[in-house]
Design goal:
With 247 residues, the protein is α+β, with helices and mostly antiparallel strands. Helices cover 26% and strands 25% of the residues. It has eight helices and ten strands. Helix 5 packs antiparallel against helix 6. The chain starts with 9 loop residues before the first strand and ends with a helix.
């Protein structure tokens, strides 16, 4: 949710356990879940079901990343959850902009509140942020209704070499998990959904560029910031800069 990861101007050096070196610009956001609710949410945190439903190239970086990190902080968050029954939830999870460590933001709606909780494998988690329930409802439904972007061959972003000397692709940079109205959705998140086209050569998404980043920004704004944005007196801050200042 607001998720997950340094601002869209950040550069990363990413090395997997397969000694794959990655250098790229990342923008992301994330959120966490709950163990009791997780059973009800039916989230597959291996993301194999998501990759089966929404296939990506075998030499995409996220294919290697999820295999390198089978156990991540979100599993601990789910196991430790002891709050009210989760009515709706959204998780964005992926690598950070430095060493590729898992991070994310977990949006949790219960009967009495909506919280956005950021986490990182090597950093202590800050307090969760309380959100406006009405704005969260708009946000989660908007993101759930986004159709996956189709990445054309001419638009693919390469960043180094994968095994067997194949180009290492970075067209996808996070995973999305949603529980809403008793239904679940999980899919890979395209880099272009988090980064403006001008921020990284090769990223082309037109009007859909950075659409998840913009949605996160809107739900994370304070009432005062939202009013300023609506009056046109102030451009909204980057969600990644605001959501994950520690990365």
């Amino acid at each position: 949710m607001t998720s997950i990861f340094r601002n869209s101007c950040a550069r990363i050096g990413l090395r997997t356990r397969r000694t794959i070196a990655v250098a790229a610009l990342l923008s992301t956001a994330a959120i966490g879940g709950d163990v009791l609710a997780a059973a009800d949410l039916h989230w597959d945190l291996t993301y194999q079901a998501a990759l089966n439903a929404y296939p990506i190239d075998e030499n995409e970086f996220m294919q290697y990343w999820i295999k390198d990190y089978p156990e991540r902080p979100i599993h601990e968050k789910l196991a430790a959850y002891a709050g009210e029954t989760i009515e709706a939830s959204l998780l964005i999870e992926g690598p950070d902009g430095h060493a590729g460590e898992p991070q994310g933001r977990w949006f949790i709606k219960t009967r009495s509140s909506v919280q956005a909780c950021w986490f990182h494998a090597k950093s202590s988690s800050p307090p969760c942020q309380t959100l406006d329930p009405a704005r969260f409802d708009v946000f989660i439904r908007e993101v759930m209704n986004f159709k996956p972007l189709e990445i054309q061959p001419a638009q693919q972003v390469e960043t180094g070499k994968a095994p067997e000397d194949k180009p290492l692709l970075i067209n996808y940079i996070a995973f999305l998990s949603i529980y809403l109205d008793g239904k679940t959705l999980q899919r890979p998140i395209a880099l272009a959904e988090l980064i403006e086209s001008g921020d990284m050569p090769g990223v082309k998404a037109g009007a859909d560029g950075a659409r998840i980043e913009r949605a996160i920004t809107r739900v994370m704004l304070s009432d005062e910031e939202l009013q300023k944005q609506q009056r046109g007196n102030e451009a909204p801050p980057s969600s990644e800069c605001k959501a994950a200042p520690r990365i």
